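Hi R.,

Here's the chain you asked about this morning:
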Amino acid sequence: MKTVGETFPGYYGPRAVERMKEKIREFVKRVETESNIDLRKTYDSPNYDPTKTFDVSFGRKYAKITSKDSNGMSGGVWGFVNMENGDLLKAASWSAPAKHARGNIETAAYGKNYVWTGPNYLRRY
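And the predicted structure, written out as tokens:
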């Protein structure tokens, strides 16, 4: 498994974890913006506000991304990010990620590997 410095050039030194946290926060903002655009297109109703807010909490190895709907009700775990290499993982449960990576936060902007419900499923060819 690659370290933060190997995956992201220039991330050597004591600030590597803080820089990764900054990248994850930026990713969560992007997910929230894109998800709310998709939700408004899907649920176009004057009586229903489909927007969601996304929060991130940091553990030792993973950052957990959770969602809440417009009235503050918890929507559950959206996904996890591996803090060592930036891999994007689906949630297996409230506190644990699924095994295989569904993408990476660095490459997510190029090939969208997530939707408003969470990281995409693995593709089998």
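The two ends are 24 Å apart (CA to CA).

Let me know if you need anything else.
M.
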